[in-house]
Amino acid sequence: MDELAATLTGFARTLRAAGVAADHERTQNLLRALGHLDVTDPGEVYWAGRLTLCATPDDLPRYDRCFAAYFGGLRAGVARTSTAGVTRHLAAQAETGDGGDDDGTAAPATASRAEVLRHRDVARLTEAERAEVHRMLSLLRGGRARRRSRRFESAHRGALDQRRTIRDALRKGDVARLRHRRHTTRPRTVVLFVDVSGSMAPYAETLLRFAHALVRSEPRATRVYSVGTRLTPITAELRHRDPGTALNEVSKTIPDWSGGTRLGEELREYLARYSARGTIAVMASDGWERGDPQLLGTQMARLARQAHRVIWVNPHKGYADYQPLTGGMRAALPHLDDLVAGHSLAAYEQLSERLAHA
């Protein structure tokens, strides 16, 4: 039962990353429901999760996509159209050794492997495992922290809207009702710098797929640049709906794959050409700076003064014995709000949640 609870908790986290409000209470309801059902039947698992974890009609297609990715790599929509088809598919996987164990626990066993993949270092995955992680990463639809804009909207409470109140009074000949207004909000812009130098080669593709998910979630509030020896804007290429097409376009655009790292010079160029004011600035790099670390420290200080929050994503941070000892990390560390891991699917999900509440 503990293994089943861990599996379904991981599934709920995947749903939350995709935008479904599968909170703790709903997850507990699912566990209680499965206590009365056959957990080896994928159809019963599917419908129990759909009835307990989904809150709105918009959740249903997201739930189907996540169920398909998490429980055995089914095509999205198969579970929705036929639960018997789900059962037959996973049964066939179990018979061929492609998924599940031979004891009939096809769905939970497959999901357990997916949960293990969530926490594994993407640099150590096989090609098939990495493809599975990338497929789950494409489902990521995290929220975004919001900021107050200069625009106003009508409200029942708030500041007095003098213009609308006077206009109504002139039209009706009397002040029948006071009008109020409040500031609207908009998503806070995320500026993501992805290090594509040689030392980041095992993680660069996964980071770019994470960037693609961010752009797809908030296309107007996400800007992405590759950094290495040159600063290259790649937001437009990442707007393609298909991740594979987007990555192909990005690969044609970036001129300095697997080269050196001159983060200080590139940050200086960015801050000279653009503004980071009010943004969430995210640097995804291992900090192996080949340029002047002092220059990097100076530019990180400038970035911190402009940005709402500065987050550094380091793949090696995911290991307990990690120490920020490289010259680049030592220079940047005093100017960071957060230093987080970036080595696994779970780490990217946590980063997405952090961006939603920064």
Automatic annotation (TrEMBL):
Domain of life: Bacteria
CDD domains membership: vWFA (cd00198)
Stretch list, region Disordered: 93-112
Species the sequence originates in: Nonomuraea deserti
InterPro entries (UniProt xref): UCP010256, Uncharacterised_CoxE, vWFA_dom_sf
Name this protein carries in UniProt: VWA domain-containing protein
